[in-house]
Amino acid sequence: MSGAKKTPIVAVIGPTAVGKTAMSLGLARALNAEVISVDSRQVYRYMDVGTDKISREVRREIPHHLIDVADPDQVYTASDFTAQAADCVRRIIARGRAPLFVGGTPFYYQALFSRLLSIDVPTDEKLRAELFALEADELYERLRNCDPESAVRLHPNDKFRVSRALEIFLTSGRPASDWYARERPAESPYDVLYLGLFKPRDLLVGGIERRVRQQFSSGYPEEVKWLLDHGYSPDLPSMQGFGYRELVLFHQGRMTLEEAIRGDVIATRQFAKRQMTWFKKFAPAVWCDLSQKTPAENGQWLLDQARKHLDEALR
């Protein structure tokens, strides 16, 4: 692969609620691009409000891929994402357009652009079932103790992936993060420019709270009620994300609506912190502080960076 020309890729990264979607739309229009969503929650159908999906009207104007590709009771893995994203890239380029990756799921980026090799540890179904039966908090604490690096990139409520990481450690005696660090990644066929967006902490925290409250007043509780009424179990990985978990407790009468809102805000803030930790460690990005200039100025700067990368890669 070392002698082959790599495919130039632009990816817009940053913590949740920083403004990736808004900035990416201007980029997509200017670059004649189609967006590939890098969001482990937006892959699920019927989960629209809680995952802050882009409207169907905008998607008709600017094609978005890897949104609504799985039902809530399906397991969607990083391997699924990698295969489907690579296919999207090929098809978009064949149409004479540019692929633009947008989203904040760190492991998807790592799986696709770092080309991680599969961990050669067989599945232990009995152990997995025992781990999955534990409460999410206990499961995550165990992972933090034995594999803190994996814990940083996983959400505490993502019992499926947390239990798999623990299973790898208990079965092999090596943390999953150690497997990834020691295995030589296959060379990526992509030349990636990460455009990182961030804001000062107080502005980001305020934006998170505003977005969560907007979601709760825009049909979020009703969306979760619909999912429960249609037989989707609260124990599904898709239902363990922040917000959905709290609203399940609300509908079960175990939490007030305001408690659900506060729980969602806190969990989202924690997730944003973990995202930035991962991005700063693993994604060599050029960063843009969105608070320093106007949206138009920020958009132009991002566009200049993207065009420079694409032009240089095609020389």
Give me the CATH fold name of the largest domain.
Rossmann fold
Any low-confidence stretches, pLDDT <50, length ≥5?
Answer: none
CATH homologous superfamily label of the largest domain: P-loop containing nucleotide triphosphate hydrolases
What is the straight-line distance between the termini? 18 Å
* Structure classification: alpha/beta
Spatial strand arrangement across the major sheet: 3-2-4-1-5-6
Tell me how many strands there are.
6
Sheet of most strands: 6 strands, parallel
What is the rounded Rg?
20 Å
Mean pLDDT metric = 90
Question: What is the architecture of the largest domain at the second tier of CATH?
Answer: 3-Layer(aba) Sandwich
Oligomer: single chain
What fraction of the residues are assigned to beta strands by DSSP? 5-15%
**Shape designation:** globular
Number of helices: 14
How many individual domains? 2
- Name of the level-1 CATH class of the largest domain: Alpha Beta
Q: What helical percentage do the residues reach?
A: 40-55%
SSE pattern: EHEHEHEHHHHHHEHHHHEH
